[in-house]
């Protein structure tokens, strides 16, 4: 390779970079994003980064890194893009050099170092919040990184030549420390964890980022099936429908998952073929439909073909499998057992896979041990063997690898941690045994952990205590280490290099944290965990100080304990079923207590393990560990791990192993309690820091023991409340409650009262402080009540007082209304969640529903009517209660259903029955109790009781009933029954409620129509009210019309009931009842008139205004049984509405009326009124008058009077008409109104009418006597005055 | 349906006349020399020029849906290309088992002529059973069968947009698109798969969106309008589309009651 030969390719760049950026020391690279590189220059520079790896890179590559921090996102993107390509290219170049020369040029090494820095920086980008576009590119980089640093499995099969990935570690044919496959793979593992991490915290990311992540994971697995077992569970766990904080398009997430799974399904890798069923199931769940079935079928066909092809090739298995044939076979065996369920089998398999995976890199390193020899003398023998043997066993390879890693120093330590954590227990044991062969003769000078501790215990504790530490040692050992993968590993992982890698490792970056196998491996070590737990719990019953060493321990091992929360859950669940066992054992007599201070003194020496010692120590340490832990493990693995029974048997075994405790120290109760207190405090303090959920049951036991002590209870309560929100407090509370309760039940015959009192006290005070300390909107109180093992009597009192917000008697503060909601909400959830308590809670709700405070009542009524009433078991009771309450308030003086519910129930019911009878009997005695305008006539009937019921009382007792009526209209019957007899106040209350209720029910509610049909005595007003309400906004339905008509015809002869319906009545019907309407009080008639004229939308008004007037005039007092006065009033009413009864209307109706025979009595009156209202009608009226003359009006005396009045009023306009009268009549007129004579004469003179008028007329006017009587001059004045008066005719009329 | 379903693809009977025709055409014309093709080439090299997105519309045969969208987007002034992902261009023939099959690259004009030439008088067949959709549109109207079912007008339209149908998988050289819109999930799958098989070099992200659109005239028109709206929305995005794509998808779905899915791939 001609390195640097074509450096001239970027001459100007080179110069630029060289002058501005001499290869900088790593320390000040942060300053590199100097202002000299604006975006365009930076982009230009970056685009020049090809995949050509030359010496120039050393100069240029720092820019790449610095651009990652550039202000312009485009530069950052381009930087990552270029880096991604470069990464592979650099690796490729390095591989070439190594394979060719066995060594690397210095510049290439430096470039690689820069590349690693770049890698870390990009990793940081993925981790930290930032623009998604950049993060997506960073993901792509991580993907490349993984693919480059892991060996291509069977490159020849999948990728044809030319399409292969740029680089993978399988292309390294020689070993070089810089490109150590083990280290590289560990690095790749870290990168994978980074990706898996994203899925775990999916809800914080954008959907697009998640899509990118899933795509990358799918791509990684497709190319490196080794990762399949780690990626699949993560993808299966991923919920595409999740609601992320920043929004995600779930269909797209689902699609990318689907694509990933389909890709797996098409992949010929054995692991994927085995999990086919799961994939298919998942795919169907993701996108049900034909499309997916088709894809599945295609994929299956594809994989079958591949399988067949590979079976044909079986004779010559692919080379990559060769050295690990045994492991792979094992793996296959493990797989055949079950699917991917989280069972022991998976655990095993996962480990097998991992060991296979981690073994793989050794493949190409047949002679790297030569290098190792220099570094690590201890390893020489094994490496030699490795070189010699072709069929190296996995154990030897592992040893080799460990050696290689140790030689790496710090870097290696990290990888070693990963490696060790993934090694299967059997293999680990073998490794240890193998290395033991080469132990030096002399005993190892360094003391192992266990020894240190045991010695410490021995030396510091008194003789009497001597045995205990051993016991507790075991406990704390496993208590503090359960996070580590398998039992054989903890010692090696945590003890070998606590200072090296624990100090370095950020627990969040711990690759194992998210490793799906972790949960699995817990399951596999379950048997041991259970043992440990039973031990510890067992002891806590008797040895309250146990937590002390634990906490001491935890302080020493902060890091591993950071892992605990997860495992805590695990332990907890595994513990549950064993609890009974534990309690049985608590009978054991050993109440041994160790003074707690010792533990603190003891712990520190553990830490003194230096990194320099590590490589030497490790090998020597392991054996000593194995003797203790490995035995347990072996014992375990002999028992069928799939049988949970083994879990039960092991504890027994281990218990036998424990030394018998020779003597005990008796402590006084007081001492015990104070110790308890100390212990609890320590645990609490501890998990405040570390949040160790695992301690819940421990705490609960301790608390149960010291329940008598108020201080402790206070302490624990405060703690619970304080932590309620992160759920820890809640869980602890539940633990404590259950513990107290179980103690309670267990001791039932003996100390029942004692402990149950504690339970109650604890529960109540906890509940109370929950109410006090948390806002009303908080659901914790409700949850506590729902989940608690048992609710003591007093809790209901508490609940009730919360519901009615007691304590603030008169006024309700703002916060209290929320409290009421909270209380009622709790009642509701209790009714749903705790069936045995239904009735108690229902009673509380009902009590609240008649509470005197509006706020409380309103909310309770809503709860009862809307929710509880629908529950089948509550309906009857609620109904009964509501009816009783209503009846009570109607018939009783002071109803007190609210206070003592049970006692008031019976009498109220009885009275109700009694009154019912009375109603039917006495109905005949009160015939006219029917209708009264405001219910006042009833008032006399019930007046003695009236004072007893206040408005608020009435409201209080009726609101629930009304709320229920909406749901069940048949209840209305009760209302009608009591209405007639209830006091005024109650009636008013009912009146207030009815419109809303009726509106809710609608006009077609059959029950209501029924009631209207046969409304009980005394409920007329109610019926009217209902009918009014129903017709207020919409047209009455046919049903209601029929019902009301029926009522009108049968019982209620009051036409006012029909008024609301008038608009929908046809003309004939209106006319038939018209007299009755006129007979109504004026106000009602007005109403009726309005409705008649209004009509319905589709039929128009029943009568036109003109028809109304005619109808009024057509009535006669004799025929229609209506007083004339009423008819006159009706007329007046019409005239009042001048916008309806317009001039035209009047003209039309008068025109018709004048032709009636006989002319209606009121006709003249109406004409006068019409003229009064519309003076412009005067001409029309003159016409009418003429017609009247033709009809010989003088023959009808009543009308004649009116006629004369009108004539007199309308002079001089009426003179023409007057002159039409026969002379006899004219004379009578002039006789009656003598002052008409002069104007009339002058009118005749002025018009020169003497010639046309008949002689008799002229005679009557007296023209023949004094022909020149009227001088011309005064006529105009007379005319003028006449005109003036005619405009005000009403002034003299009537 | 214009593009015959997957089932039909397995039909072993090829249309001999068609292949003849396409064979001729292939020799004579390079589809990329059409107007659209040239334009695409010229811009292909540039990576999403400032503010201006490059869109690709992809359906199965590059005939109806993608072309309708291509036409509309082009008229709206967007930088757009269109492709099909099928193995062949398939158009309805006299029966569901006898589709008209052409190779990608056969100019629309050639297909037009070919169809006109062999337009059968299909009145004998129970057409409404075979092509209920087309038949129902204009069963009574006069004119040729292919005209009636809209094939010829469609081809006429296509000739005005570009020269010949192009296959997505064979045109990786067309350069970088910012967004690829597919009109069918199967097409979406194929585009994604194809993108995954390409080796990413530029590390330039591309947004691939699927919007299911039924393969008929009316729906293609509706789909094209939606496509235009979607593309315009994307083009005016301020900043990285990666930030808002989820919200945009959700909002678009809600507004138009359409199901969408997107994926991200890299050039």
From TrEMBL, chain A:
Domain named Symplekin C-terminal is located at: 1054-1232
Q: Which Pfam families match?
A: SYMPK_PTA1_N, Symplekin_C
Question: Which segments constitute the Symplekin/Pta1 N-terminal domain?
Answer: 72-274
- Quote the biased-composition stretches of kind Basic and acidic residues, using this chain's numbering: 306-317, 501-518
A single Gene Ontology biological process assigned to it is: cellular response to glucose stimulus
Gene3D superfamilies (UniProt xref): Leucine-rich Repeat Variant
- Stored InterPro entries: ARM-like, ARM-type_fold, Symplekin/Pta1_N, Symplekin_C
Q: Show the segment(s) annotated as Disordered.
A: 1-35, 306-326, 495-573
What name does UniProt use for this protein?
Symplekin C-terminal domain-containing protein
UniProtKB/TrEMBL annotation, chain B:
Q: Which domain of life is it from?
A: Eukaryota
Query: Which one Pfam family would you cite for this protein?
Result: Ssu72
| Alphabetic keyword roster | Hydrolase, mRNA processing, Nucleus, Protein phosphatase
Where are the stretches annotated Disordered?
A: 1-31
Task: State any GO CC term.
Answer: nucleus
* GO molecular function annotation: RNA polymerase II CTD heptapeptide repeat phosphatase activity
Q: Where is the signal peptide?
A: none
Q: Reaction(s) catalyzed by this protein?
A: O-phospho-L-threonyl-[protein] + H2O = L-threonyl-[protein] + phosphate; O-phospho-L-seryl-[protein] + H2O = L-seryl-[protein] + phosphate
One Gene Ontology BP term is: mRNA 3'-end processing
Q: Where in the cell is it found?
A: Nucleus
EC number(s): the record gives 3.1.3.16
UniProt similarity note: Belongs to the SSU72 phosphatase family.
Its function, per the record, reads:
Protein phosphatase that catalyzes the dephosphorylation of the C-terminal domain of RNA polymerase II. Plays a role in RNA processing and termination.
Record-given protein name: RNA polymerase II subunit A C-terminal domain phosphatase SSU72
Tell me the organism: Eragrostis curvula
